[in-house]
Amino acid sequence: MQVIRTDLFGVLREKLGANLHALIEDTIFPVAGDNLGINSELKDEMCKEIDIIVNSAAATRFDERYDTAIRINALGALNILKFSKQCSKLNMLLHVSTAYVCGVKEGLIQEKPLHYGETLNGEFHLDIDAEQKLAEEKLKDLQARNAAEKEVTLAMRLLGFHPTFHENYDSSGQRYMDGQTHTRSQKQWERCLKEDLQLIILRPTIILSTYKEPFPGWIEGMRTTDTFIIGYGKGKQNLTIGHKESIIDVIPADMVVNSIIAAMVAHRNRSSHTTVYHISSSSRKRLNMGDIVQFFVDHFKKNPWIDERGKTVKVTQFHLLDSMASLHKYIAIHCKPLLEILKWANLILCQRLQTLHSNLERRINRAIRLAELYKPYLFFKGLFNDTNAEILRMVTRESNADDTFNFDPSTIQWEQYFKEIHIPALVKYIF
């Protein structure tokens, strides 16, 4: 019931009052189980009754521990797949993946499934068991050395970016987007699918706060673009790498939910095929990085952040640099000299400037870390083809359900959405 108490269910609480709890008890039956470790009697009953499975559980951090990402995104989803094949009445398995399983590509990216063993560069065979074994061996090695938990976490996060995973690198050593642990582990699961059941794969892009339902601006957690928006508003970050023409494909959370419902209705009859939907905006209402930067710069100039001491944070110009080399050069010229001055002044003044020195050092390290982490998205040049999704929208329109279950990105006014809905939501719910 803790989930029901959140703001997300506020509209239902106002509408139904005390009846909301009765509705929840009648319609939702929570089942405890780690990787579907459900007791046999309950599992047998579920297998006889379930007709639709929606799997949206995922570890979504781009720098998640690789063992955690494999366990949840790949192996956890495979357990769902195995369970679904035991359900005698099953009409469909709907899996929420990510559009960025495509890796770093330019041009039009098609809505097509990945196949077992397929890799982006075509040179290596993907083996989930081998990658899981590598993660387990690394973890055992760390435990044998009695490594501190912080060291273990860092090592397991870095593992997802390790060049041992050949398809993460091209011939020059440039890391592909699927070096991100979230996209990589989602990709692993998609490649293991067999077409002996009706499988619907929804691939949303970067999910942001709700556009309309249940109210504008609900959000839980920060996404790629949000990190830079909040960092800028708080006066802690005014630079990163990227190009103003880079395509930033985002989609509001309620449109993703609406697409899930629409897909379940459209595919309610049992079949044995796989359909992929890109739930995206780049083909219908393109948004560039330069646009987003202008939106949040304008917003915080007009509505400045108030810090914990009640003081107004004054924002400055935001710098987009064209490479990691440019970022390091900028830091060397504009930041490192001041850091060195603070270092020596702090020594002379008996550590009285330690806070200033530490804060500047953190800002420099944060800018470098975020640029490295999000680099593939900050230079992305691909457009997600959403022909299948548009057909699904047409079906929804024909049934006169498009007002209730709208997931058409062409209806979004991006400037209004960011300035009046999304950025205020970040300020309210994240901080």
From TrEMBL:
GO terms for biological process: long-chain fatty-acyl-CoA metabolic process; suberin biosynthetic process. Residues 342-431 form the Fatty acyl-CoA reductase C-terminal domain. CDD domains: FAR_C. InterPro entries: FAR (IPR026055), FAR_C (IPR033640), FAR_NAD-bd (IPR013120), NAD(P)-bd_dom_sf (IPR036291). SUPFAM superfamilies: NAD(P)-binding Rossmann-fold domains. It catalyses: a long-chain fatty acyl-CoA + 2 NADPH + 2 H(+) = a long-chain primary fatty alcohol + 2 NADP(+) + CoA. Residues 125-152 form a coiled coil. GO terms for molecular function: alcohol-forming long-chain fatty acyl-CoA reductase activity; alcohol-forming very long-chain fatty acyl-CoA reductase activity. Keywords: Coiled coil, Lipid biosynthesis, Lipid metabolism, NADP, Oxidoreductase. Catalyzes the reduction of fatty acyl-CoA to fatty alcohols. Belongs to the fatty acyl-CoA reductase family. This is Fatty acyl-CoA reductase. It comes from Nicotiana attenuata. The gene is FAR3_1.
